[in-house]
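Sample 3 of the quickstart, ligand MTE:
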Amino acid sequence: MQNPPVPARRSLLKVLAAAPAVSALGGLATAAPAHAAPTPAAPASGPLATPGLLSAPGIVKALPSEHFTVRGTNAEARFDAFGDTGALTPADRFFVRNHTSTPVLDAADWRLTLWGDGLHGRGPVHFTYGQLRDLPSVTRTALIECAGNGRSLYASQQGEPVTGTAWTLGAVGAARWRGVRLADVLRRAGIARDAVDLLPRGLDDPYVSGGIDYGRVRRPLPVAKAFDDVILAYEMNGEPLPYDHGHPVRLVVPSWVGIASIKWLGDIEVSTRPLSSPWSTDWYRLFGAAHPAGGSAPISRQTLKSAYQLPFGATLESGRVHRLTGRAWSALAPVRSVEVSTDGGAHWRRAHLHDTPRRDGWVRWSVPWRPRSTGPVTLLSRTTDTAGNTQPERAVHNTQGYLFNAVVRHPVTVV
Ligand code: MTE
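Result:
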């Protein structure tokens, strides 16, 4: 069995102390699994200030400044630098959204507990890491995108104030996830026919803001979605899940807002009654003039977007042909087309798509452009999906800046 690195982190002890004890095996074979507990890449170490490396409190992996922008406890991937990545985002380039900090957990000590009145036996059911690995596995590509991705554009592009992390466009990534169907685990745990809601909860520290302790990150997930396509992932792009992305096991909830994909999963309440948490009442709902008083229903599906892989304010030479590249994605249906405008929206033409559009993935696109005159130019791109959704000119404002879907006005200068 491999020895995991010794993490010099206070949170490890705290988290391990809080891990539930093993008990009933909930219909699983009781033979001890022979899996070695996997170890993700070792936590970054070395001098605190390494040139070119950013530091974000609580994030374990290295954050080179050419690939990330740090925003509080989070690291945004630089979308303009995605040009050298493929259809899958490498783990070391994937954005990190942490409410608190990454707990460095040991798969060998980890347990998942299911409990609540929505289980036949009522008593808690535990699964070890090895028991999960012994269940049939599934592999699928899915994007994880923060509900607030693009949030800063409400202010910069629409002049509308919003609260929350000021993401530009890099709070999104695509990966190939391998794990176990949540449906299989729920059946083995003895889910009752009348169970309606789950409440998956992470093992990271409780989230405290403005002096209020909101408890551990948790958000209700309807049983219907859980049985549809949710997986308990233990691999990302063929490697053990990295610490920052939920090691040893996280939920992957395809096409839903990123908060649904709970990392460092510790337990799941299974309930015959609808459940709630601050992540479904105070946040991740739409508030504001365009929405019902008291807010919308909790948001679930992501929206659609497209973006250029080019820094805002990039300088391009006139008279030369430039290959402009970008990505387009929709959580609502496969992408049908991407149109671009290189004159602020007066004329549009179709971009060339380099991937077969699928649900839950993104499509890389490109278009040649030879600017003829110098000066400032606004580049635009617009995704339309096969369900007929098109990026609008303006996103509908909500006070917390979720689900930005408008055509992005991308400024460049031709010299
Ligand atoms: N799960 C836990 N336990 N703690 C968190 O802070 N953040 C959520 C979700 N799962 C979070 C979590 C949010 S808001 C997002 S967008 C995704 O994780 C981000 O996943 P990533 O950090 O792997 O990119």
